[in-house]
Every structure is written in structure tokens, then in C-alpha cells.
Amino acid sequence: MPGSSFELVIVGSGPAGLAAAANAQANGLDYVVLERADHLADTVFCYQKRKHVMEEPMQVPQRGALPFAAGSRESILAAWSKFAAGLHIRFRQEMTALERVDDGFVVRTAGEQYQAARVVIAVGTQGNPRLLGVPGEDLPHVSTRLVDPDDFVDRDVLVVGAGDSALEVALALCERNRVGLVVRTPEILRAKESLERDILGRQATGQLVVHFSTTIHHVETGAVELNKPEGRVRVPCDQVILKLGATPPRTALESFGIAFAGTGRDARPVLSQRYESSVPGLFLVGAVTGRDLIKLGVNQGHEVVEHILGRAVEPADEEVLRRRLPFWAGTVRERIADLRDEIPLFAVADEELLREVLLAAEVREYPDGEVILRQNDYSDSFLVLTAGEIDILVAPPDAPAGAPPGAMVGRRVATLRAGNFFGEMSLISGRRRNATAIARGRVRLIEIPRKAMLKLMATDAAVKNMVDKAFLIRAFQGYLFPELPEAVLWSLVGKARIERLERGKTLFSEGDPGDALYLIRNGQVKISKLSAGKELVLSYLVAGNFFGETALLPDAPRTATVTAIFPTDLIRLDRTDFDTFLAAHRELAAGFAGKLEERRIASLVAEAMPSSGSVLSDLIRQEVVMGTQALFIDEHKCVRCGNCISACEGVHADGQARLSLTGIKFYNLLAPNSCWQCENPLCMTDCPPDAIARDPRGEVFIRSNCIGCGNCERNCPYGNIFMVHPKAPLSLFGWLLSLRSMFGAAAAESAAHPAAPEDAGRTVAVKCDLCREIDGGPACVRSCPTGAAIRLEPGEYQQRLAELVVRSGDL
Amino acid sequence: MLPRTDTTARWRRFWVGVGAVLTAVYVASALRGGFQHGGSPAGIAYGIFGTVAILVLLAFGVRKRWYRSTWGTLDGWLQSHIYLGLLSALVIFFHSGFRFQDRVAVAAFVTLGVVVASGFVGASLYTSVPRRLSEVESDLTPAELSAQIQQLADGMARIAGSRSQPFQEVCRGLLAESLPGRLAGWRLMLTSRGASPKRATSGGARGGGPAPWAVHLTRVPPAEQEDLRQLLVLSRQRSELLERLIAQQRYRNLLGAWLYLHVPLSIALLALVAAHLAAVFYYARP
């Protein structure tokens, strides 16, 4: 057993700490791991039971001997536990102080102290869970985590908190227990919208109770006393689960002398390439460095010991990145430096984050004249031009769809040069491409997948700012000032700010004083007026459109009401800023006035034809307009044979239907629960394994790497994604067996579709993919014997639905 | 036949045209006196046409379940099925030369007639019933309605669980009043009241009808009357849901019931045609 003086002390026994310990042991270092809990890897240990843990990034090889592969929380912990049996780990040793001494450090824990030449901190970011500070919270039925929802049946449970994890715990428990959610504020403010919607929906159906504006007064056995707005209330309670977040470890790290890059919440510690902090001899690895993926932590843990031993070690992603950047010379660091010199967007990005982005990127070359992307395609990658030039062409709205590249209909609106980027409109708005890009000369570009780019924007404010500005400038160029150079527009877009408009909220009403112009960044709004006391929908606008221009005229009130149909991000430009800009560029005023006049005439025309908005109004009210391929069933033709569902089951290898004959009805039309292939698919926004993709034709589909987390099901506003137990394909024998169900054989269905043993208990997400893998189009439509099932695109809604709808008065 | 759309009009024109040509050929042949019976060259030609038509008609059932097929839409197949079915009856008349002697052939012909007639009824129902069904359908599917009805029955059973014997008898009686009974699905199609639950709140104890609430309340101890009221409310809700279910199930059954005649007889027709062909080839041997 080693003594209390070590060459290396590793604080934390998570993946990074264990990997460091494994390498230290392999190299004969005298080391010890200090773990504050009584078990390994507390962060992973605290995951919900059977949580699927992913092995990302897939492209990066894993270093060292610590076993780690994608799998359940239990399988990973079991593998680490077995591996750690031979390591020197001391449990229940929480570091309380770290002091620098002449020949190294002194690490203090409660009752112990350890001397070390070097210290590796691998404590993760969980920190200490926040508590309430009220009497009774030390009782045994108060906890800060939910291990297994199945442990709770028919019990009174109070969940305290309003973040994602609190809402997830409440949702996991509410079906089999009486659950109350205690929220300090009058509404849920900081959770994902899909979770909030789910919680409020379940509250409406009585499945749980949300105590808003409520705090805990005290906890006692069998009950909790709440401070509610109407007074103190005692509620029965068998279990209290506190989900109040955690105190981040930054304060503690700073007390050790570690410097951070910036003061923001997301600021990370300053580290050398050897993971050494601003305190010599003190190293940081794992999530505390800002890279929170387990595999990266394992690699850092292994590498930090190599550095301590004085060995030169390349980053684990070096070889992969060298292959990713074949046209540049030198080490990856040098290649990235060259890229940063060439590309302003990369120059402002954090280098470590850029490495992660480039891991997922591809460098592509195109010959002169080749189409790089096509207007109206649904591709959504982000492209950075590193060599050559690209012409951007925009086809007029009435151009024939699918025109061949050689006969490209459209006018050139811009030419991009090396260092520029494009694709930001589809990236931000989730909409189809709004222009065609054609190579001029030999072109080389870096294509970055949507998810990687969004992650970079979410973590690097400088990158986000630059992409947003470009989005705004190009929108201005496309709509108001086609010929104006970017440099001139910078002064205007610098004044813009982003506003969030929640679903159903009205931005302004007809008659309100106008004070700003808006551009829709993402989401959708409805423009309407009141006509004879009834709402008349003039139009609906999606991302990339401007509105509110007429209010930029002096003293002009708003001529219509604008309401968000979906959660919408708007870019706002105040009239005063606009006036200042136009005053400085008087030559632009005439063209701008012309645009305002066009919009005013269009509005008057819509008003003069009240019927033009009626069907559209219904559709928007029923939320159908978001779909690009909506399925409708004319109930006056439908003979309820169910062949559409049988066909859906029959053409998918898992035997599951992606269609349910329930849904929104208007008059004789049913819009059943089946994916509408939304223009901006909310299901894609939060898929951990990036399993939901969209092909250029627009089909949104789920790949086989779905882990069954259910995020997409929760995020779909329409309930069109189904979590199912995979069934084996229906064989002829199975079909014959299934016939028995006609005669009441209860087991016939399960015999016909036996679940594969390895899939028992596992669910996966399924959704309509328009039968993309078979010829002939959606099987539901082709298998309808009476032609009642039809698929419509938005352009067809107005005309076809007006033909099909038989209003109740006509019946 | 079926809603008037471009598709139906196209198929109708096509098959009416084919029927007109076949009729003209038959009439011309008959006027020349050259076509006497099914064994004549023209009769055999009509027989081959009829046999192929019957096989194509039966292939509809295969196509309906062959979901990956790219052989046209099922909508088009059904249109062809309807008009080809009508045409096949005409063609078999021509095939026989209006002479009906062979018993197997006559049996096949009669079966064909019943199949075509039942199909005609089915097509008429497909045209008229969906609109009526959509008028009585609620937002709940039959499965959802059934689940709610069952939930209410469970709720009634829970309330009655620990109550007195008379209370439980009332509960059993209320549940039994709503039982659909034997062959309710078939009876339902003949009359909308065929399997309708008897209202627990209407009628009277006299005459054997369901007892009104007041009568039920007198049967249980006063301490249980409040619970009984709760039970009766659930029973009323259950009856109303059942009525909604029955209203739409009646039309749904109408849409499906004719197939119980049409499909088995189609299979029987195939067997009879096979027997007819076998007999013809057997007796035609030199």
C-alpha cells in the first residue's frame, strides 16, 4: 500500500481519472485516486437506470486500457468496476483544500492529507447538488436523484425544481404515482419547451399537479409543508426528489489558483496543450476542461500521464484530422492555423471547438460549373469556401421545379470568394435551400454537418454572432438592397437584436404604433386582420421573411396583427436605427419605398378577397401548414378498411405502422397522425445520436442508430413519432397465425410478431418516411382502395383542400 | 359507381367501351347464326375471356395485400374490379350462348351472379355509407371508446366492491343491461336498436324494462344511496358512450359485412370454374 506521499494524486474516479490511474499504474508511477463518493464515477453512477451511454465522437480512436464502449449505464459501470479492482483508489475522500508547497502540492480531505509532486483534477462538472436548506431535508426519503422509476409505484412523490431533469423525473414517475412538481416561479422558464408542454398537458389531464410560485417550508415523515401563494399547505409525501442543479466547481478551482478564460458562465480554465493549468504541476482533464464527452475524457486521462512522464504525445484525433484536411501541410495544429488565416469565421472560433467541428467535416472539391447545392433542396450542411469562387443564383418564385443545372433558371445574386461561407439560412431556419450554388473555376470547400455547426454556434458566441450577422446581411441583400455591398450593411445589422416570440403570443396588433422591422430567424408567424369581427388570415410567413416594413414610415400604425404559430426567433431592427441608416444612404430610400408599396398593395388585394384566407386560416389554426407532405384522408370516401395501416406495417421491415387514424379533423378531412415532413423538423433538434436525417428531397427519416431516448417523440408537436417495440417482419406463417386473431386467439398477434430476444423491453422511434426505400411512393396512398388517402404539399393545400372540404353546412 | 372522380370516369369509359365491343361482336355473330354454344370457337373465346376476367378479379385480393407492388394504385384496381366484375357476368352469358344445361357450369354461373351482385351491393355501400359514418363518428376511435367504456365498468365494479348485496345486484344489473348479446354485430345492421343498450334511466320497472334511478335507490340501504348515485352516473356515461360506439359500429359493420358473402363465394367460384374446365377438357377428349 503506498504511503501518503505520492508522485501523482488524481482527484476523481470518473473515466478521465480512471484512465489516468491506469496509465500511471502501467508506467510504475506512485499514485493514488481520491474519490469523494463511495463508488466509482459518480456522474455516470447518477445516471438514470438503464440509460444508454454513447461512444462519441465515433471518428476519434480511444487510448489507454480503460474499457469503454457504448452501452447501458450498468454495463459500463460493471466494466469499470472490474477494471478498477487493481487500481489504488481511496473512496470517501473529498478534496477540501489544495495547497502549493515547495516540492509539489498538499491535498487535504476530511481527516487526511496527501502530498504529491503533481495533481490531476478530474472531478467533472457535477459539483455538489444544491439543497433546499429547510428543516427535514436530511430525512431518508429526501434524495437528489432518481435511480429507477420502477422503484416507485402508487406513492406520493414531490419533485422540486423546474429544469429539464426535474421535469424528466416528474414525467418518469407520474404514470404510476401521484406526483407533484414544486416550481418556485409562476411558470416554467428554463426547461425545454417539449418537456414543459408535456408537463402542462399531463397537469391538464390530472396526471400530475404543478405547484407554481411555491417553495418548501419543511419536510417531515409522510408529508411536506408547502409555502403556496394562498398560504401554507400540508401535502402527503412518501418521497421528495430535489432537482435543483449543482454548484459548479469553478469557485473551488479558482481557490486553488487556476485561472479561467473569461468571466462568463461557460468560460473554461486556461490550459496548456499538456492539460496543465495556470498553476504549474496542476493538471485538469475530463469534463471540467469543457469537453464533456466520455471518450475524450478517457483520452485526456491517458495523455496527461504521458505528458507528466515527459513523452511527446499527439492528440488522439491528430491522424483523423490530418485525413480530414488533406490539402494543407504540417501538423494538424499548423493546418488549422492556416485555415484560421484564410477563413475569418474560423479565426474567431475556439481552437479546441474547431477541432471537434473539423472531425465531423469533409473537404470537397468541385470542377468549374458543377452545382454544389440546389435551390429548394433539403440539405442542411454548412459550407466554408477555402479556394475558388461560387456563384449564388436565385430562381424566381414561378420557376419550374427541378430544372436541370444546365438550364438553371435564376439570376446571379452574389459571388462568394475564398474565406466566405454559405448555407447559414438553412442552418438557422431549418428551411430548404433558398439559392443554388455553382462552382466558378475549381472550388474547394469544407462541408460541416448541421449538428456539428449548431453545436459550435451554441458554445462559441463569436461564431454565432458572425453567422447571425451574415444571415441578416444576406437577407437584406436578397429582399431590400440587392446591390448593396456587405460592408455598407454592417453598420445597420450591427444594431439588430434577437427577440424570442413564444407560440401563440402576439408580437403586435393591428393599429399599434409601429417602431421596428422584423426578420424571421426561425419559426413561423401568422399575419392577420380583423374583418367584420372575424379574423382574416392574410398570410403566414416562415424563416427568412421580413415583416413590419410599413411601420417604418413616419407615424404609420401597424396594419395587421402578427402572432407566432410556433416558437419563433425574430431579428428586430428599430425604426430609429433604420432611419439613421437611410439618412446616411439617401440613394436607397427610393427602392425601399417601392418595396413598401408592393407590400401594401399585396395586403389590400388579400383584404379585398376575403375567401382567399379562409381555408388557409383553418389549416394554420389546425397547425397543418408546417408540413411539406401532409397526409389527408377524405372521410366521405374512406371505407375504414384499415388497408393504409396494414400497408404501412407491411412495407416496413419492423412491422410497425407509422400511421394512426386519429388526428386533426376539419369537416370531412382527417389529417391523421402521420409525419408531415415538417419544413423545420423539431424532432431533429435534440437527437443525441443524430439518428434523424433529411434527404435532399425532403423526407425526414430515422436511421438504425436510434437509441430510443424518446426526445423526438416529445419534441414532435403533433404526436407523429411513435416509440415502439420492434417486431420481427411478418412472415407468411406469421400472417396465417395472425388470422387466428379473427377468431379471438389472444396470443395470435404476439405469435405472429415475436419480438427479437435482444430487443425485449427496448423501444425505438419510428415515423413516416414516405416509404423512401421502395418504389412508387407512400404505400398508404397506393393501398387505399377508394382513393381517400392523399398526400399534399403546401402549394397544393389551398386549391386541393378547398375542392375536398365539404363544410358542415353543405352536408 | 363509387365517388365520381377523374379516375373512376376513366375506368368507367374504358370498361363500358370493352363491354360494347364484346356485345357488338356477339350480336353480329348471333345474327349470322354462327354462334350456338360455349364449345363453338366464339364461345370458347368468350370462355377464355371470362376465365381470365375471373382470375384478374380474384387477383384483386392478392394485390390488396401486396403492399410493395408498383402495379398501379389499389384505387385503380378496385375500379377495374367493379367494372370487370359486371362485364364478366355479361361475357359468361355470351359464352353460354344463353344455353344452360351443364349443372357445374350453371352452378358456377349462379355463383358468379351472387358474387357480382354482392359486389354491387358492396360498391353501393362504399359510396353511401362513409359520409353517414363520418356524421356519427366522434373524435374517439372505436378502440378508444371501448377502452373508456371498460374503464367506466371497472369504476362501477370498484364502487360496488365493498357494498351490500343489493347494491352489487344493482351494479350487475346495470352492467348486464348494456351487454350486447349474441350476434349483436349482425343484429345491429338490421336495426339501429338491435343491440342498443337499454337506458338505465328510462322506462320503468313495470313491463320488464330497466328500472329508473328512484327504484334502484329504494333497493339499497340509505347509507349507500350516495354511492349508488355515483354508480348510476357512471352507468349513464357508459350507456351514452356505448350508444355512440353502436352508432358508428353499425355503419362500420355494414362496410364489412358484405365481404363475408363476397369473399367465400369468390373462392367457391374459383373452385367451380376449375371443375367446369376440368369437365370440359375431360369430355372434349377424342
Structural class of chain B comes to mainly alpha
Main pleated-sheet profile of chain B: none
Largest interface: A-B, 29 and 29 residues
Beta-strand level of the residues of chain B, as a percent range?
A: under 5%
Radius of gyration of chain A: 30 Å
Order of helices and strands of chain B: HHHHHHHHHH
Report the CATH superfamily of the largest domain in chain A. Answer: FAD/NAD(P)-binding domain
Structural class of chain A: alpha+beta
Helical content of chain B (DSSP H or I, runs of 4+): over 70%
Number of helices of chain B: 10
Do you know the CATH architecture of the largest domain in chain A? Answer: 3-Layer(bba) Sandwich
CATH class of the largest domain in chain A: Alpha Beta
Question: What does the oligomeric state look like here?
Answer: heterodimer
The geometry of chain B reads as elongated
Intertermini distance of chain A? 89 Å
Number of domains of chain B: 2
How many domains, in number, for the residues of chain A?
5
Strand content of chain A: 25-35%
